[in-house]
Design goal:
The protein is about 30% helix and about 20% strand. By secondary structure, it is of the alpha+beta class. The protein has one domain. Strands 1, 2, 3, 4, 5 and 6 form a six-stranded mixed beta sheet that branches.
């Protein structure tokens, strides 16, 4: 009796299955990495938001002190007050990255234990009264012009004198910075105009 001849198998199914399993393995690893990245991004955004709120708290505290001092003891704003983070001048060669910019700062700690520095700069060249002839301060007034005028109120054609349309507003810049515990850094600024 003759044995039946069995057709020889070529084994195509095994390599195809191995390729499919490899693709599924790579896809699964990518999905895990992708979801982990999304979670980390969301956590970092929440952390950054927390730091921004803390910086805003310092800006608010500085602006409240400035408004109170402006109302109750305006003459005190001629001199530096490092206990309250106030500097009566601004050296325009300094930036927030320069250590000298932060001389006179005030340091506070929020309820989460985050340390925040802030400093209030009056935009004046010298620690003198804003209207002292040798002092130069950033001042503006509200623009009350109407159309069809050649020179706006508050502008001048003279080269030697400033002519303001009304009482000047002095410029102050409040700058807050945080070095976050996880390496996140935030610097925020607030411009405040105080009418004389």
């Amino acid at each position: 009796m003759k044995r039946p001849i069995i057709a020889r198998q070529h084994g195509v199914a095994l390599p195809v299955m191995m390729i499919v399993l490899t693709i599924m393995l790579i896809s699964g690893a990518y999905l895990l990495k992708s979801s982990n990245t999304s979670t980390m991004t969301a956590a970092n955004l929440a952390y950054q938001s927390t730091l921004n709120r803390a910086a805003d708290r310092a800006l608010l505290e500085g602006s409240e002190w400035l408004a109170s001092t402006w109302t109750n003891n305006r003459a005190a704003l001629i001199a530096n007050d490092s206990a309250n983070g106030y500097v009566a001048t601004l050296d325009t060669t300094q930036t927030v990255r320069t250590p000298a910019f932060w001389i006179g700062r005030r340091t506070i700690t929020d309820s989460n234990g985050v340390t925040i520095d802030y400093v209030i700069h009056r935009l004046c060249e010298r620690a003198l009264a804003y209207d002292d002839p040798v002092n130069k301060c950033m001042q503006t007034t509200a623009n009350v012009t109407t159309l069809d005028t050649t020179v706006a109120l508050g502008d001048t054609l003279a080269q030697t004198a400033v002519q303001l349309a009304g009482n000047p507003q002095l410029h102050y810049i409040i700058t807050a910075r945080i070095y976050g515990p996880r390496g996140g850094n935030v610097v925020s600024q607030l411009a405040v105009l105080m009418g004389v």
